[in-house]
Specification:
- The protein is mainly α.
- The chain has eight helices and no strands.
- The longest helix has 31 residues.
- It starts with 9 loop residues before the first helix and ends in a 7-residue tail after the last helix.
């Protein structure tokens, strides 16, 4: 191994740093019985301690906010970015919440993409990206993708609810009707 190697897993390293800066690690460690200093060491990439998958899952679950129904998935997202993947909450996770109308869902998608456009214009104007801007872009893009997945799931669910009726409408729409064609 060379001493001049570039650090590997930069997305996960950034996720660990952002996570530890955004949360009181002592409180999270207490939720699942881990030594808070050990947890700080595991989130600090300059230390030799490494975060285990089980700990990553427990940490993510420990950030769950019952008021908003959301949790900080930054560590999982950073890990998946290392594999050129992204995460989106499954539609089943949203079933406990009040149903969102398709219009509201589309407005959320439009809002997220509008904010992404504003960030892109800012990046083009300054010709540089700082950590805050990067995190903002990633957060809004993940929100837009999540809302798109939820929209697809809801539309698919509506189709599956009445497949015979929707197939009949599709058939009637594509068939020439005598006297009307």
């Amino acid at each position: 191994m060379s001493a001049n190697e570039c650090p590997k897993h930069t997305a996960f390293i950034n996720a660990c740093s952002t996570f530890s800066n955004g949360h009181t690690v002592k409180h999270l460690a207490a939720k699942f019985g881990l030594n808070s200093q050990m947890l700080c060491n595991k989130l600090d990439v300059s230390k030799t301690h490494k975060l285990f998958v089980e700990e990553l899952l427990l940490l993510t679950k420990a950030t769950y906010d019952p008021v908003t129904g959301k949790m900080d998935t930054g560590l999982v997202d950073g890990m998946l970015r290392e594999l050129n993947l992204t995460s989106v909450p499954l539609p089943e996770a949203e079933q406990n919440k009040a149903p969102t109308s398709l219009t509201d869902r589309m407005l959320e998608i439009s809002s997220a993409t509008g904010e992404l456009s504003a960030c892109t214009l800012q990046i083009n104007a300054t010709n540089r990206v700082n950590r805050r801007t990067k995190e903002q872009v990633v957060k809004r893009a993940q929100c837009a993708v999540r809302e798109l997945v939820m929209l697809m799931s809801e539309v698919e669910g509506k189709f599956q609810a009445v497949p015979v009726l929707s197939c009949a409408v599709d058939a009637l729409g594509s068939m020439p009707l005598p006297g009307l064609s």
